[in-house]
What does this fold into?
Amino acid sequence: MDVRIHDILTRNARLEPDRLAATLGDETRTFGELDLLANRAAHRLTAAGVAHRDRVVWWGPTDLAALEVCYGVTRAGGALAPVNPAFGEQEAAAALTELRPRLVVAHPDCEDAARAVAQNLESGSNPIIGIPTVLRYQRTVGGELDSTRRATILSVIRRVMGLHGEASEVSGSLEWRTKGGSVERLVSVSSGGGRTTIEGSTNLRSATVGTYISGGLIATAITFLGISASVGGPSLSIVGLILSIGFLAAACLGLRAIQRKRVNSEAAKLERVVYELAQLPHGPRADSPFPTE
It folds into this structure.
């Protein structure tokens, strides 16, 4: 008879819910608490599309939250694959490429790093700046959206994206997009065959080019003036030359940080709008990790 790890937890939670199950430093969990949290995690994983034998990556430290995710993954039928939170971006990207997980669950302390690597793998980084300039998220759920909920769908999109945009019907799909400006955004919802597909994308190419050209020209001009002053003086100022070149390098890093922040912000909006729209065919979920307002 096969006994799964979460079956043991369920049995102990039923027999001795107040018995101590795990401790780590000052943190403790009883069997009842751990069972409840694992069940909540399993529901969220299932809602996110995790099915039998799917790999789920835990990206974070070894703490009690990891234990809750571990039990939740097995209860959802998946397999847990932890990633060392000390990995650099290249090491983590190689691990995710090898594992091909259905989902990555990240500890709050590792969320930015996990999001950056996941975006690079899913969207493809710009080979020059190492940051994705086109973001895409897609999710398919069971059930078809009622056509009468068009206003509700647009309300969710506009609230999450923070823009009014324009809506249209294209080949049976409802599309919302923003036109003009340096950032192009598109969200589409299509139903058929008993399923609904939600897709969201953001094109940041023009915004990225504008940021790097304007910022780069200013930084280059300042650097050139600094070098000219160092070389054209009575004597060559090595210190001035080094400082000027150092300023250019710092400016490049600063521009990359600005663009990374913009990418993270747009990615968070896309991820949330796709998630919230995915809940509409089945109505609101009690275990939604996002507030309604």
Summary: The mean pLDDT is 76. Residues 130 and 266 are 17 Å apart (CA to CA).
